[in-house]
Amino acid sequence: xxxxxxxxxxxxxxxxxxxxxxxxxxxxxxxxxxxxxxxxxxxxxxxxxxxxxxxxxxxxxxxxxxxxxxxxxxxxxxxxxxxxxxxxxxxxxxxxxxxxxxxxxxxxxxxxxxxxxxxxxxxxxxxxxxxxxxxxxxxxxxxxxxxxxxxxxxxxxxxxxxxxxxxxxxxxxxxxxxxxxxxxxxxxxxxxxxxxxxxxxxxxxxxxxxxxxxxxxxxxxxxxx
Length: 225
Ligand SMILES: O=C(O)c1cc(=O)[nH]c(=O)n1[C@@H]1O[C@H](COP(=O)(O)O)[C@@H](O)[C@H]1O
Fold this sequence. Notes:
It is built from 10 helices and 8 strands. By secondary structure, it is α/β, with parallel strands linked by helices.
């Protein structure tokens, strides 16, 4: 693979530590993902600082609200020039259509299907019947129909979604090296398995950020791809 598909999830509370980590591993990742933890703590200023590293930025805000509000939020982040932004696919078709219409140029909008921290039981407890697999496929279809660029799903579903949506853009988090600690993630696969199943982007956080030697961890993951 010519371009490294690994996006480092920079889920760290301190901006200086986040920036130092990203710079340290920058030669062994393809982009940086800034999520709710980072954005709530450091806002636009933090995003501008991380932009200086020069890697593509994935702004994982998981927007989920009425269409008008989500569209306005999308417009408010144009200035940050993200390459990828997330919305929750369960927000519905109109919300996703308006999010895509409001996205900045060269910004992919992807719909989060079923969080990788949920299993079938967790999902059923929210009132959704059927399996996480079925729900992820259903929401992928809705995201496709709404004109999004792709979806976020676990490595367990990405192969099936890819079969239905050949030119989709698929973000896969919940990745763990074969011997990695799963923590709060329930639907995990290895980075290599996700890539082989058709993932476009591999989101990796703690296996790198919490490793004793983050650079060695990033290199080791890169070597498996
Ligand atoms: O949208 C995401 O990136 C996301 C969706 C999902 O279903 N599961 C998931 O873990 N994520 C994000 O991916 C990252 C995973 O981090 P680690 O579990 O530390 O590798 C976190 O930043 C999560 O917010």
